Amino acid sequence: MRKRFSIVTVVVLVGLGIVAGAMLNTLISGDSIYESMKKFEIVLATTQKYYVDDVDTQKLTESAVTGLLGQLDPHSVYIPSEQLQRVTEEFQGSFEGIGIEFQVLNDTLRVVSPIVGGPSEALGIQSGDRIVKINDTSAVGIAQDAVPKKLRGPKGTKVKVSIARSGINGLLQFEIVRDKIPLYTVDASFMVTPEIGYVRITRFAATTYDEFVEGVGKLRTEGMKRLILDLRGNAGGYLEQAFRISDELMPKGRKIVYTKGRRPEANDEYVSSGAGRFKDVSLIVLVSNGSASASEIVAGAVQDWDRGLIVGETTFGKGLVQRQIDLPDGSAFRLTTARYYTPSGRLIQRPFGKDRTQYARGAFDQDSLEGDNLYHEAEKDSARPTYKTMGGRIVYGGGGITPDYIIKSDRLNEYTVQLWSKQVFFEYAGSNTDMHGKELRVRFDGGGREFAKGFEVSPEMLKEIRDLGKSKGVEFKEDLYEKDLPYITAYTKAFIARRLWGNAGWSRVMLKEDAQFGKALSLFPEAEALASNLTGGK
What we know:
2-enoyl-CoA Hydratase, Chain A, domain 1; globular
């Protein structure tokens, strides 16, 4: 009896196990994930075995992953392993190498500028230096994308370079010990008037908040009471960094941004702590069609709370949050896990449809009327949903952040674009500073401030620009040249300033021709009146 009972029990348990297993498999995957994975496995294995030519299964798998993510949204993407290191460096805010910005021009590897705090700067390597040998091997004719492979490397390793420098006979020899090099995201911070400071953020990486606090803190010690925060062209980055910067600008208890996803763990809310060091600073934020994601979080919070004014052009309209998942082979993919919303409840994501090219281009094809848009009448006929700022002004969702003052950026004509694309300004600045750089540094001190004020581009210099353009195949068109002459003059001067004083030198020159910046300078009384309408508005 005991034996028969055991057999029956075993049979019943096995039967129950089979049924339960089948039910569990259905519950876990239904017909979807399991069957789809099996289908892909069969197709890939059959292709590898029977296809008429040899196949690269890794390449096929990557194409399949890319196609899968492409069915979701434009911001869920696959990142191949060869690109992931560069992407990671950009967002971590550092890399390991010798610390130079470089450009290959006419087969010559030129130092655009040594990175502040890096080993090249410490050794005295200068803007305009030409690297002609790397580890005793000629660098003449080196490709742009081959330079990092030669000059980057683990911290503590060494590389020898031979440098030709204008005015010095023979080559200068340097042995550079590679180090960790910072990649700055706040590329300019300086005073433009005794009370107004200017800060430009190019992206939101791991170090952006610290850079911002350091830069704005320094301006406060110089007397800053008003701030122009330039987020134009900033495509975004880490949401947390955008929140921390916004927190520095807001009083306590203000919702900055919140996220909603399909899964509860994707839902989050970010509220200001009240510890912000710059919440009493009058604020204007500059934005453009290329301002996206984290930039729109900052601009949206400022606008919804009437904390300051937004000036420029309607932002890109990216309201999706991505999570990066690393894969075993060194690649990764970014998956959209949530949508984010501004304090008033606006989802700023633009509809993306099926045409991804049109989606990317659509942000730059917007045509809004210039001028005062404080009450957002430029969008009054829009089908977009309406919301209200904390002061009662109407704002719109579903299509980026539309500025309170719409000022279009200037569009360069074909002749100027050709000069730029053929690197005429860059090459001219190099040859000019090779001859006059030392003299200009002595004559114009102050990090480019005095240069921006006092240096004049001469008619002779402009003729040299035209002649250099002709030598590079840029057909001279007098009508287009005359139309863009203020910008051609400004670019000539700004490229020289960048060679001598870095990005701050560039910005000091270009802001003088910047209509959006010029309008921002005049709007602080209105920004302050708007903020003061709210209790604790500053």
